[in-house]
What does this fold into?
Amino acid sequence: MPVPPHKFCGQCGAPVKRRIPPGEDREREVCPACDFVHYRNPIPVVGCVAEHEGRILLCRRAIDPRLGYWTVPAGFMELNETLGECALRETREEACAEVRLGELFSIVDLPAAGQVHFFFRGKLLRGKFAAGAESLEAGLFAPDEIPFGQIAFRSGVIALRRYLDGENKGLSMDTVPPRSPD
Ligand SMILES: [Zn+2]
It folds into this structure.
């Protein structure tokens, strides 16, 4: 999903214009009334591939986008939060599950969406989980049961495949190219 442009200045409310600010090399959203420059930067998204007795925790989305599709617990990072805290929070919110966080094993760049996705390993504590408010259901899947045709986001498919490659492979880095316009 590309990042929608701002229409109005966040400082004074005037309509913004795209132009190159003095001393910079690219167009930004600039307010012609108060000169405020609206910088846009990629947003971190953090997820956790949580395992319990060889099976992987997935949630089926109760919200758009990709309602009804399966996902590893993941979401936008909040201010005043670390990557690890975000992974724990999203797993708690979407799957009502507490995990012991392992290492960061997958980073997926999505330049067209203006996002970077980070995925941690995790071990489900006490084997407990349930559908959170944003999930229709949650479940544990053996590697050969994972519904790869119904995974919500390409980054999730990449992370799951990297996870199934096994531990001790280090940190993998992948890039999701823009979708073709067809
Ligand atoms: Zn302004």
In short: The longest strand covers residues 99-110. The two ends are 15 Å apart (CA to CA). Helices lie at 83-95, 154-164. Residues 1-40 form a domain with the Ubiquitin Ligase Nedd4; Chain: W; fold (CATH 2.20.70.10).
